[in-house]
Amino acid sequence: MDLAKLNPWNWFKKEEEQDRNAAAGRAPVSRTQPQPANPLDALHGEIDRLFDNAFEGFAAPRLAGGRERHFRPKVDIAGDAKEYGIAVELPGVEEKDIRIELSGDELSISAERRREEKSEDKGFYRVERSYGSFRRVLTLPADADAAGVRAACRNGVVTITVPRLAAARTPGKRIPIA
Questions:
Q1: Angle at 161 between CA 84 and CA 3, to 5 degrees
Q2: Whole-number Å distance between alpha carbons of 70 and 89
């Protein structure tokens, strides 16, 4: 079995290209901001800048007004001589909201998560909502059989099975030394 085909940089190369393109389209963080008169405000601003720089480029969820704009579920990829197995954990996502598409060698997994929590207690009423979407793009290896891809969802885990094409074996031959 060729283990190089399981390397993450092969499976995630199109997704990484999209992330780089999205990062290039973002407005750069301004490095020349006016300094506040209060030294504590200056320290607060400097700490914010350090954290912004440290975590720039990470796909961390950003919460804004109850809306989780982005979440990125973990993807497990395994393989053997017969097939590749892809598992994506999607707790809280209903099966009807999951979309799996195959276009060429690009396998796209996307979904939208919606959650609403209500509670009433002694005259207090509270409603919290959060929702967000994600899209993961995997690049299938050359020996993947696109016609036989299957998917199943059980207990919040989507399992995608991608059969492998039989490798064409060339008969060995002896090379004479001249």
A1: 5
A2: 15
Q: What are phi and psi of 23, to 5 degrees?
A: -70, -35
Name the pairing type of β-strands 150-154 and 106-121: unpaired
Phi first, then psi: give them for residue 71, nearest 5 degrees: -135, 150
11-20: long-range contacts (C-beta < 8 A, 24 or more apart)?
A: 11/77, 11/138, 11/139, 11/140, 11/141, 12/137, 12/138, 12/139, 13/139, 14/106, 14/137, 14/138, 14/139, 15/136, 15/137, 15/138, 15/139, 18/137, 19/57, 19/59
Per-residue pLDDT of the chain (178 residues; tens, 9 = 90+): 555 555 544 677 777 777 666 666 655 544 455 556 778 778 877 887 787 777 665 544 444 444 444 567 889 999 888 999 999 998 878 888 899 999 988 999 998 877 777 777 777 777 776 677 888 999 998 888 989 999 999 988 999 999 998 876 677 888 889 8
Domains of the chain with CATH codes: 3-22+66-163 (2.60.40.790)
pTM of the model: 0.58
Residues 6 or more apart whose CB falls under 8 angstroms from that of 95 comprise: 153
Q: What is the DSSP letter of 8?
A: H
